[in-house]
């Protein structure tokens, strides 16, 4: 009986440890404006599939203060209140405000981080944003320090910014996350990795976008070897495993083949693939678009990732199997968890099967075993 009790306690403790792993769900709120079955709002979110909901994006004013990029959606439609209101369903859910993103770029971030007054404006406005709206923390998505209009001083200034935010957040228990470029070439240019790791709650590593049509050939968006190399680099530079969150792209990068008969990985391409019906951007297809296409699909074992093609259209993406591979690696490295970019491009309506197949595959590995 004592032995049985000990086993049960151990099992419960093991489940508790697994349940603490992060599943950070980024949400591009602009998907509200998509048409038809691409439209996505708060009602489409299952708050039990995420430990963190990252509300994207807020911007930065010239004086360093944080600003809403869509006040009508954020406040008039009440998206922020509705997002924070999901905590009434799942009291353990953390809702974060995300500042930055690709379109925000680097210039304003760089100017703010390098100026004491602007940093204080940023921090004070962050505190006001979190307090006034019920957010649980902040996520900084600076793409990227020392690039895209930034400068070398960004590396040290980013550390200073994070340290000052951490100190300001401490009395309130707010979380501080960052989203970072993944590969060694990008990361070594932009970050003092061991220094920034000291000041953040977790680090979302954007382990995707490893191939683009601008390369002139088809390639995998997130091949397993590139994901592993990136995470191993961050670990080797002093980022603790228990702060690293592995990124999963719920979308594919698409290409227009130069010759439709040459449809293999590495085949020549003449540009981006055609825009999807929902996402509307060339070179980019949500998983919810890809799974409906019924293209010929191949799972490439060398890259642990699928690709699909039809005529001169070619796309590399993640499916349930490749996501499982990534989660096995995250578990093997004892990482903090996984994040997804982004909720509104999973098959959230379940048109190809069950709803949220990729997000559920992550949870099955990290939290529900």
Automatic annotation (TrEMBL):
GO molecular function annotation: chitin binding; chitinase activity
Leader peptide range in chain numbering: 1-19
Gene Ontology cellular component terms for the protein in this record: extracellular space
Domain GH18, chain residue ranges per copy: 21-369
Swiss-Prot/TrEMBL GO biological process terms: carbohydrate metabolic process; chitin catabolic process; chitin-based cuticle development; ecdysis, chitin-based cuticle; wound healing
Keyword annotations of the record: Glycosidase, Hydrolase, Signal
Family under the similarity heading: Belongs to the glycosyl hydrolase 18 family.
PANTHER family per UniProt: CHITINASE, CHITINASE 4-RELATED
Protein name stated in the entry: GH18 domain-containing protein
Taxonomic source organism: Drosophila willistoni
Originating gene: Dwil\GK22943
